[in-house]
Amino acid sequence: MAQEYLLFLDEFHSIVQYLYSSDTLNQKRREVFKDIQWLIRSAKKVIVSDNTVSNHDFHFLESAMNETGKHTELNFHVNTYNTFQGTPVVRVSDREKMFQMIKKRFHNGKAVTVACNTKADAVYIRQRLWDETPDETMRNNILLYTSDTSNSVNIAQEVERWHLCCVIHSPKISTGIDYHPTEPIDTFYFGRGEATVCPATAIQMVTRTRKIKTLYICTDRMRTKPRFESEAAMNAELDMMQKNAHAMAWNQQTMHDFLVLKELVDKTWSPAQLEDVYSDNKFSIGYRRFLWYDTIMRDSWDANFIQGLQKRGFIIVNEEMVGDEILLQDPAERTAVMVKCQEEMIKEFGLWTANKDTKFASTFDTKLANIRDIPYAPLNQGLAETLLSAKSALNVVIQTFTETEDKWAGRRVQNIFLRKCAEDSNKNVLLGMYTAVKLQKMILHSQTVEFDERKYLPVCNMVLLLHELMVAFNTGLPEAVHLKVLNITLSQCDYDEDEEIAIDNNAWTLYQRYSKMVRTRPTTRRALMGVIFSLSQKIFGKYFTYKNETCRRSMDKTKIKCYNYKSNDTIVRVHVKLADWSKRNLDDFDRDIVAKYKLAECQKRDREGPTLNDFFAISNDERFIPDPPLAPVILKPMVLSYVAPQNPKKRTKRLHLVDTVPSKHQVHVPLSCDAQNTTSQQELRRVQLKRQKEWHSDLNSEKHDDKQEQKRQRRDGGS
């Protein structure tokens, strides 16, 4: 029986925050609330603990214990001991000064910890510190923990070696890790923007180090204006969403606030209004209080962060301590560091495509699996062979772009694997190719599945919004100049910029939520085109579309600045080349897209498998060989010859397949057996060698058949 148990809820503030804000609880949030309420009421004793307990946390606890809304008598035990009592906190105004402090301490042999609220800052600091640390032993003591860190890495065990290291981490480390250095050390925090973590989480990040000598913080780009003037204004917007739910578009009905309220409120049918009528209950009231608390926290992020530190005993110092003069950061220097990061990743990407050892192999494999729609499970026995085939197709695409000297397409492929923004842009291109009907089906389906399958939900909403805006823009224009989701190419002479136009209220409200590039509601085609342009760049990347400045003459012959818009077709072409079309239903795609990019042929190619022509497209570097063809391929007569390896220390055999008909193709296929390969790489190599033997057998058989056919033709011709 539950009455015999003690219920202990540690990190209670985080639990309540998760219950209200997590997307994983959609469609089951109310059931979880009822289960927790039953546990709290039925347990013999309930104990909750946390460093921060807010008013909405108390409201959650009281509402779970009674239905009347009255205050419940609670016993408080306040721990007056502050671990960080008297620890100074220095506010640093310049990020470059912070970095120079970190470098100086690390080079002097002192351990430091650096917490960043974004992955980009953590990567930048690590790379720059690496470049400015010449000693190889000290470089090994620079540790980085971000979302790219493999789940197999046990951070709790690695804490033992932190005493000589510079530990740099993103919100990957926020709870569950305790670092107790032998002597107090300096800790640094970089914060940029209030959207990533709340003040309470930021405090958890910096206090992972339990003995802090001095805490240095540098925050910028924080919100300084409140989102709502009052709690009543926020509730008025939420009420408007509920009352107009029947008239809202699909993309608005999938916003997080709307989904949570829709699930928590009570809904009854009104015969008079012929609509559902919503009414609040204790669950929805609690959610409203949580939203207001979260809004206040983020509207005044800095103030709440400082207040939270003071409650833990920290002493705030508003300016930097007097010391050596440190020059401000040069923008060119930051650019140079990021270029070095990029060059290192390009080198690792080249090693990965050549099947050589690289520390980013798991990261690249995961990205390739996402591009080719491969379920990525490292323990899957067939995954190695599937990735081998996918990498073969990738190498064919890279070589194709190299031979055609399409450097922009080749660079785009590279960036998809190296940059998160390019990877997301490539994913979103698929949604841009779908019809509006397919997108609505995806949104409906996403409301019934778990979090991992709901990753496309916000982008689906934005693409549907783009459809709506383009319908409004295309009204009254010739079909030849109609805008399309993946093609907004438009010249200024094709339309009247000053023509008045109106867009739907719901569409404009949704645009303001997803993009803040344009703040004034458009009333002309010129203004609406600016809205479409900014939203298109937000979805598909800033390089997807661009505008060239031009001018036109007004009625009084004065020059007016305007723009010609053009879409970058390379981004769509690269997606078509990289994707696996064998599993996709072409009925879900726009018919013009299917015809323009020959998706039916792409689907046939992927279902039948790569041909030997794809094999010939590979250059003489050590790349993977594509899968053997599933359909018969007619080959020209071949001459088979072997060439001795140039390096006798490396057991390499080069096979030359030379076309008897003069051709520019001469293929070198290295068969290397490197003793230093890992077990997984040796397995991939064995699969590769097995496939080669099968291919060579087919080549010899078809060559013999071709010779017999030639003899027969000569005999018949002579007779």
Task: Indicate the low-confidence ranges by residue numbers.
Answer: 246-254, 320-329, 611-680
Total count of strands: 16
Question: How helix-rich are the residues, as a percent range?
Answer: 40-55%
**How is the quaternary structure best described?**
single chain
Walkthrough of the structure:
- With 719 residues, the protein is of the alpha/beta class.
- It folds into 5 domains: 2-65, no CATH class; 88-224 and 300-336, Rossmann fold; 231-297, no CATH class; 406-592, no CATH class; 610-718, no CATH class.
- 47% of the residues lie in helices and 13% in strands.
- The protein is built from 27 helices and 16 strands.
- Strands 5-6-4-7-8-3-11 form a 7-stranded parallel β-sheet, sandwiched between helices. A 3-stranded antiparallel β-sheet has the order 14-15-16, with helices on one face. It has a two-stranded parallel ribbon with strand order 1-2.
- Helix 8 (199-206) crosses helix 13, helix 19 (436-446) runs antiparallel to helix 20 and helix 20 crosses helix 21 (505-514).
- The longest helix is centred in the last third of the chain and has 40 residues, at 679-718.
- It is globular, with a radius of gyration of 31 Å.
- The protein starts with 5 loop residues before the first strand and ends with a helix.
- Residues 246-254, 320-329 and 611-680 have low confidence and may be disordered.
